[in-house]
Specification:
It contains six helices and twelve strands. The protein is of the alpha/beta class and 260 residues long. A nine-stranded mixed sheet has the order 6-5-4-7-8-9-10-11-12. The longest helix has 31 residues. The radius of gyration is 31 Å and the shape is elongated.
Length: 260
């Protein structure tokens, strides 16, 4: 009986020692794992190219005090790197992980612009699909509709916010409609906050007015006028198309008296 107990104790001790040895070996092996390479994946298939893989890699190397390649994986602060990459003004989301080849993979989704603003002070930036301001990039120019005029900054911030909200609401509506998206080229903000839309064809000024609960109805009138009116009389017959009056489209003809 005593012998059985001694054997049982010995086996338990042996198992414990073996566990410690295996655990120590595993920890030692893990501490010896190093980063063999870094892959920066950017969603270029979206048509955007605000970022380059090299600038992201250089930023990560700087944070690691030198090249991340060759550094022990246990010594890399992945959370801090991921948070820093996400703070980049062109990054919508980022994920960092290590694959089975001991490569650090950085997977980036870029912010998507829907409108470019160029105000009267020459300040220019993009508005994203989530209504965020995106700075211009030396690497890439996004070909989206342009908003010009009285988009104030750092003066009347309340009005500034209201103007940007109106532009954002209008351009999101336009982008969801194939006809309007192909038509709208520029939006001009007047001093009173009303909007004028400049189409890609025809050369008219479309006096849209305020972006309010009647926005969809205004655009419906515009589409009907283009399809049933301008197709018959010609795209360049009118100088202005005014949508500000309920249930009406008021037009001003071009002055053709000076035409040769």
């Amino acid at each position: 009986m005593i012998m059985k107990k001694l054997l049982l104790v010995a086996s338990v001790l042996s198992a414990a020692v073996l566990f410690v040895i295996v655990l120590t070996s595993a920890i030692k092996k893990q501490n010896q794992l190093v980063c063999r390479n870094i892959q920066v994946k950017i969603d270029y298939d979206s048509g955007l190219a605000f970022l380059t893989g090299n600038e992201i890699k250089d930023k990560i190397d700087y944070m690691c005090g030198g090249s991340i390649t060759g550094k022990a994986l246990t010594g890399i602060d992945f959370r801090n790197i991921e948070q820093t990459v996400r703070k980049n003004p062109f990054v919508a989301d980022a994920e960092i992980f290590v694959n089975q080849q001991q490569e650090v993979v950085v997977d980036i989704i870029q912010k998507r612009p829907v409108l470019r603003v160029i105000n009267n002070d020459g300040v220019s930036y993009y508005i994203s699909e989530k209504n965020e301001r995106i700075p211009l990039s030396d690497n890439f120019t996004s070909h989206v509709a342009i908003a010009l005029g009285n988009v104030a900054m750092h003066k009347d911030t309340k009005r500034d916010s209201a103007v940007q909200a109106a532009l954002y609401k209008l351009i999101l509506f336009v982008r969801k409609d194939d006809f309007l998206n192909a038509l709208v080229d520029q939006v001009y903000v007047l001093e009173n906050g009303e909007l004028e839309v400049i189409p890609k064809i025809g050369g008219q000024t479309i006096r849209f007015g305020e972006v309010d609960e009647n926005m969809a109805e205004k655009f419906d009138r515009l589409k009907i006028f283009y399809n049933e009116g301008l197709r018959k009389v010609g795209w360049d017959k009118y100088k202005t198309i005014d949508l500000r009056y309920k249930d009406q489209v008021v037009c001003e003809k071009r002055d053709t008296t000076n035409k040769q």
